[in-house]
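Hey, sorry to bother you again with one of my protein questions. I've been staring at a protein lately and its backbone has me curious. I owe you a coffee for this, so here goes:
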Amino acid sequence: MNPKTKKILKWTGIVLGSLILIIVALGLYVNSIIPKFNSVPVVLQKELFEKPIQPFPMEGKFIYKSATELSMMIRNHQVTSVEIVTEFINHIKNDNYKCNALIYLREQEALHDAQLADEAIAKGDTLNKPLLGVPVTIKEMFWVKGSPSTLNSIMYGFIAPRNAIIVNQLRNAGAIILGTTNVPYMLGDYQTIGEIYPTASNPFDTTRTPGGSTGGGAAAVAAGFSPLELGSDLGGSIRVPAVFCGLWSLKPTYSAVNITDGTSPDSAFVYNRMALVSPGPLARTPEDLDLMWNVLINTPIDKRFQKPIEWKPASAKNINEYKIAWMDEWNTSNGSAKISSDTKQKLSVLIDSLKQHQVVTEKKAPDIYNELDKMFLRTWGYQFGENQPWLLRKFIEMDFAGKIKGESENYQSFQDAIRDASDEGWEKTEADRKVLIEKWENFFNDYDFFICSVTFDAAFKKQESWKPIATDDGNIIPYTKYIPYAYIINSTGHPTVSIPLGLNSKGLPIGVQIVGKNFSENELLHFAKLIKPLVPAFQQPK
């Protein structure tokens, strides 16, 4: 071999060897910064997702009664909790496969708890137990001891070692937890699709999504598997499923309710930047929202996020004593946030009904849509970047760039935040959030509430996530533009109640939301009960 060839081979070997060492070193580095979890494969309860060979006995006496009705029936000794819970369990086992609403059924535990509830009723031990014997379901993200809490990600093979504080609060109030409900991958979608559980479907049309991320929970309540669901909302995750499934819902003020043991399946890591997330109930009546809210309101606080709150009771105002602002298409920096003609028409009917009942209404919105949009993306970026090394933040940035960069004129706010992720940047963001909160609060000095849409239209057909949506009225719109009034409310954490407005011509639910002053939940629920007679009652899916 001539010297020149030897020299070429030598340097080729050196270069290849160096590249291999660099690749190995990079691989070791990446492996070292990826969070480690004690994951075990989650074993699905297959019977939940398959049609039973023989249907379980189920008369259907209780499944569409409200939680308030069930509670009174139990207390008045008209029926036992065991009878009610048995019917719900059999209904779930018969029909859950149609929409994959529940992902874990606590059959034996629920029946045991129902028996204990009946024994307490017999003894008259009902003090401070407003949910005694009443079945509920819980969003999979909240820890329910012995149940999976994976965020529908294979990375998290996690079985909850204890109940979340908020779950214990419901149990202490006597609630019977039937099981946990389906969520999208990492809670990050307006459809309920992921890596572990079968995709959830809308009970009103199983070709469509029930929404996300409390999609399984909304489907469960709409399908009669549960009268009450505990959900959570970071960017519309309670309100979008409520609208898509024809439900009432409450997204409380940020920091009103403890969300500990619901932010991650990793028991070793605790987030400190959760300024967008609120847990809250979904139900078929506003009275049931009120029932669960009066339990949640007393949940022990997490001092990282919360301060003690002196809650004001609701007023005794009549409906004609309220002044309401409303908007169909809110002005943005790039035109307006569009909604469908069906949604406009339903909203218009509601406003006309309010006017007929002497409610003062004014078509007006605060001129802050663009600021809210930027603040949501900025806060989101700092939340995702918390305690993450540069490379992981880069991966997150790349992932979200593929989803929302082309859809949002304010994407730069997210990009700047995820690239920075510093405590100083977070503190500045929090300070700017307070200024924006004050703008909302000043608006509410002139109006009791603000009514607007949540989504562009009714539930859309299941499709590839983050791709443009073909709407029922023939338009093609970007994925996130389908929920233009959901996430922006999370920017400042204001409370909202979702109101179902009946079905459209396709038999699909449509709804809107009422936004209130911070910590005005009690008054919001009072107003919701006043307007209940003005809107169509819940209609069971056919």
In short: Confidence is low (pLDDT under 50) at residues 24-30. The first strand starts at residue 102 and ends at 105. The two ends are 83 Å apart (CA to CA).
